[in-house]
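Issue 218. Parser rejects a valid record. Input:
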Amino acid sequence: MNDKIEERIGSLVEEILSDYKGGKDIDRVLSFDQPDRATILSILEKLQHLVFPGFFRNRSLKVYTVRNDTTMLVEDILFYLQKQLMIVLRYRPELKDSPEEELMGQAEEIAFAFLGKLPKIREYIETDVQASFDGDPAAFYKDEIILSYPGLYAIFVNRIAHELYLLGVPLIPRIMTEHAHSLTGIDINPGATIGKYFFIDHGTGIVVGETTTIGDNVKIYQGVTLGAASTRGGRSLNNKKRHPTIENNVTIYSGASILGGDTVIGEGAVIGGNCFITGSIPAGAKVSIKNQELLCKNGNEKKESSVPLDEENTWFYVI
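Output the parser choked on:
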C-alpha cells in the first residue's frame, strides 16, 4: 500500500471515529451490553433440533441415544440463553441497575420456564404440520412440509418467540422473528397470539401485527395483512389493541388486508382475495370484492368485459 492511500485511509478512520462521538443512538460500540445476534440464532437452530428430533440435528456429533443428544442440547441452550438473557433483562427499566447475581437468578428462572414450554410448543407445531398437509394438495409428505415449507418455519419461530415474549424477555423474540421474516418474507410479530392448526400457504408478504389474535384452524395465503388501522398515534399506541381478532375456522385469501384492533372476523368466515376490511365480519360470512373489469387491447381493437365471480369455486384467487 503506497503512502498516499495509507494517509487517506488514516484520515477516513479518524473522521469515522470522530463521528462516533456525536451522541447518536447508533454510536454505542460496546458489545458486552447488547445481545449477540449470532448466538441467538444459534440458540434458535438448537431449539429447532429439539422440536423436530431427527429432522434437524448436528450429524457430526457421535451421539448414540436420544437422551444423550437431548441432554447436550438442553445444557447448551441453557448456558447460552442465560448469558443472553442477562444482557437483555437490563433493557427492562426495573432491572437496569440490578446486581449481577440478581440478573443471573432471573435469567436462570426464565430459561427454565421457557424450556418447560417446549412440550406445549411441540403440541401446537404438530397441529400446524397436520393443517399444512390437510390444506395443501401439493404436499405429498409431512416430511416435505417440515423440511421445506417457509410457512411452517415462520410459525415455528413465532411459537418459540411468543413464549419468550410472554415471559417478558426484551429484544430476543424480535431478533428471532425478524430472522424468520428475512428468510421467508413472512412477518409475524412475536406478540401475536396464534391457536392450533395454523396454516400459511405460500406465505410471501404476510404481515401479522403484535396484538393480533388468531384462533384455531385458520388458513391464510400470501400477501395477507393483519394490521393496525392507523399508526399515526406512534408511541401513544404502545400496549393497546391495534390489530384484528381472527376467530376459529377462518380462511383469508391472497392480498386481503384486515385492519384495526376492534375488527373481529367471525368464526367460519371466508375473506376473498384483495379485500380491504376495517370493520367486523359476522360468523360464517363470505366476503368478496365487486366484479373486476378487464380492459384488453389488441392493436386498434379494445374490449372491455366484466368478469363474474364464482362464489362456489374460484372467486377467492387460490394459487
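Fixed in the parser; the record now loads. The helical segments are 3-19, 37-51, 66-88, 100-115, 118-135, 142-148, 150-166, 172-184.
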